[in-house]
Please model this.
Amino acid sequence: MKKCKSRMDESILVCVYYGPNGDRLIQRGSKIANMLDCPLYILTVDPSPFDELDAEKSESIERWRQLAEELEAEEFILKDNEKRPFAKVIADVAREKQISQIILGQTAQSRWEQIAKGSIINTLLRDIPFVDIHIISVARALRDDPDGLYEKGVRAYLEKEDNHYRLSFEHTKKSEFEGIFFKEIGTDFNTGIFKFMKNQKTLQVTVTDNYVKETL
Model:
């Protein structure tokens, strides 16, 4: 049974297509939805009818459907036998489900395909400007952030304050450590991880709402 979500002003739509990255995109979307405590929808689109798909594609769809159930997604949506452009289908689903954020894998469109057919992203930005669109470069996510939980790192500092440290984005006389702060996706607070060098070693500490409680 799905849990009642506390926030209905936010909702996540993960768009997946065949290949090795679909499961990872769904997992990432689920983590963002859990952090926001909002509904999660998963969409896949195919121009062929479901009963004409090959074994590999059918297996992928069934795996995503099962993963959606395990992650307590609101709905797994399959749009098969779909002749419209993918971007139009995504936009229609976003409007129907009142989606606020869309997660897409980085497309493999060549520059010529973008010129000839138009970029999926540009079409979505034009058709549903009220929706935030996240483009996930899976290769980079695998290398830098296996769980896909954090935004791009920014330079930051830790200042000693009583028995703990406070995160700052400006260098002052109180700054004791300089490093890179990776903010968790989906939070309005400065919560995430801070990586820095100490005694020629790379260290990592957890930041919760601007503060580090660990002993450095």
Remarks:
- The first strand starts at residue 12 and ends at 15.
- Confidence is low (pLDDT under 50) at residues 108-117, 139-144.
- The chain has two domains: 12-144, 154-212.
- The first helix runs from residue 22 to 36.
